[in-house]
Amino acid sequence: METIYEKTATSPVNIAVIKYWGKRDTTLILPTNASLSVTLSQDHLHSKTTIRASPDFEKTRLWLNGVEDVDIEKNKRLQNCFRETRRLRKEYEEKLRKDKGPDKVLPLSEYNLHICSENNFPTAAGLASSASGFACLVYTLSQLYELPISAAELSKIARQGSGSACRSLFGGFVAWEMGSKDDGSDSQAVEIAPRDHWPELEALICIVSDAKKGVSSTEGMQNTVNTSTLLQHRIEHVVPVRMKNMIDAIHERDFQKFAEITMQDSNQFHAVCLDTFPPIFYLNDVSRAIIRMITEYNSTNSEKKLKAAYTFDAGPNAVIYTTSENIPEIINLIAKYFPGNDDVKNYFSDPFQLFVGKT
Ligand code: PMV
Q: Labelling 314: which of 85, 131, 209, 284 has CA 20 to 30 A away?
């Protein structure tokens, strides 16, 4: 009979309000600027990973959404995560051997793994699937290996799978400190505030298209680093100020400030994409219609306040941040601007229901 050790875990998606775009070290995945995100509820969007380890497995295998088509040996990011977690497990086994005796320790670090990972939302469509996916891989490995390690330390490993994954190791409001060391030992995620610090803040996800994006973030961001002059301005003069102001806005639960910076930063991220040569387009006509809809909503309401903020990652799908009292109004707006969509009805009964915009 086979001996199998198994762990399952889920990880949430995070949506950046100050975007990460550009690496200063492509192997260790060290960013050219700090970033900040909100981790969404796991009830709606998540990655779920089951990892089994066994002395009887002949090789390590990975199924993503039920399909085994990733070449693990050639995938450096996966190898980084396996290597780093195995190294820590080895150290831990040595310690346990000393403390408890050699025959009391499972040599899990020597076993091959079978990994099944699933996303309950479109993969690689600019909805941070790599963030929740790599965070989940690393977290599940740490659980399987029973690693005595903090979330911040774990975030440095997840970062080497996919940069934005480091932020999904925490709930609530999370910064990825870019760090200054060449070895990446200070480039990690930290919690700015827990989720219950600002319970009224809500995220509405508008799926405009569930097609895989044309230019991957890996390829796109390095083209931007190599060709965009606007990116240099962003790195040196814009992001450091925005990070500070955004952290203040979150601490003060100041939606005006939060919304303004969120929209400005999304705009600038897509501007550096356009400033890349050749240019990268992630937004489509529906994305731009959503921007216009939110802009109009913010400028025509009777209080003359910013009541909603859009943000877009490397794809056309929108995330709208708002506060709970505005949700019915925004849903009505979406129903008006993008009619004929059944999911809008569902939305009323569940504030986090996905809304599918018509393309
Ligand atoms: O972690 P990556 O390589 O998938 O890059 C993600 C980059 C953005 O989603 C566009 C921005 C961000 O900070 O999440």
A: 85
